[in-house]
Design a protein that fits this description.
Blueprint: H1 15-24, H2 29-39, H3 52-62, H4 66-78, H5 82-89, H6 94-105, H7 112-124, H8 128-139, H9 141-147, H10 153-167, H11 172-178, H12 186-201
Helix pairs in contact: 1-2, 2-3, 3-4, 6-7, 7-8, 8-9, 8-10, 10-11, 10-12
Length: 210
């Protein structure tokens, strides 16, 4: 995918993001920038230049947005090589699984049951993007329905916490969304904390969340 080609719209776009998207597609440079910023948390670090985040940040930069230009310059200066990124965010050979998912997403009809099975497999092997995708699938009713699973706020919060334990604040936005008081009770949050800490020692037990 080139920076000028249409970006793939993720299922987990919020209403606010969809509103920004409508303006961004009309050429509103500020909307392009703010949409890009809001999409950073869901961008696959191993395929950043193929993400919606990069697509709209590049659009904003090309249209003269100075902050967007600075962000892209910093990314170019600080960016890891593709192999270094893969080693960090897609460990245990999980990039192959994520590539298989990309191919499945292009098929018609889309086999969502098969995709979620592969996401669960990659997540058990500590793949960052798989954990991130499953967080928003289990945490949003619209996504859960598409993938044929039940919405589960406890699972979503646990996955967000576990991903944060593994990769630091790169997914902090998910903690804010899926572990706040509107999504889980205080008791559920404490349970999610216990589960996420257990998963650090026993990642193979992740399947118990499904």
């Amino acid at each position: 995918m080139t920076a000028s080609s249409p970006a793939h719209t993720q299922l987990n776009y919020t209403v606010e993001q969809k509103n920004l998207l409508a303006q961004a597609e009309k050429g509103d440079v500020d909307a392009q920038y703010f949409l890009a910023q809001s999409l950073f948390e869901t961008a696959d670090p191993n395929r950043i230049k193929e993400s919606d985040f990069y697509h709209w940040m590049k659009k904003a930069a090309d249209n003269g947005h100075e902050v967007a230009q600075n962000i892209l310059a910093d990314m170019a200066a600080d960016g890891m090589s593709s192999q270094e990124t893969a080693d960090e965010f897609a460990p245990n050979g999980t990039q192959k699984i994520m590539d298989e998912i990309k191919l499945l997403e292009k098929q018609t009809p889309v086999d969502y049951l098969k995709i979620i099975g592969k996401l669960q497999q990659a997540a058990t092997l500590q793949n960052y993007m798989a954990l991130s995708d499953l967080t928003v699938i289990y945490g949003m009713e619209e996504n859960a329905t598409v993938y044929g699973v039940k919405t589960n706020p406890l699972t979503a919060c646990t996955l967000a916490l576990y991903n944060n334990h593994l990769y630091g604040d790169v997914n902090k936005g998910h903690l804010d969304v899926y572990c706040n008081g509107e999504q889980v009770t205080n008791a559920q949050f404490k349970q999610a904390e216990r589960l996420s800490k257990m998963l650090i020692k026993h990642p193979n037990r992740l399947s118990e969340l499904w």
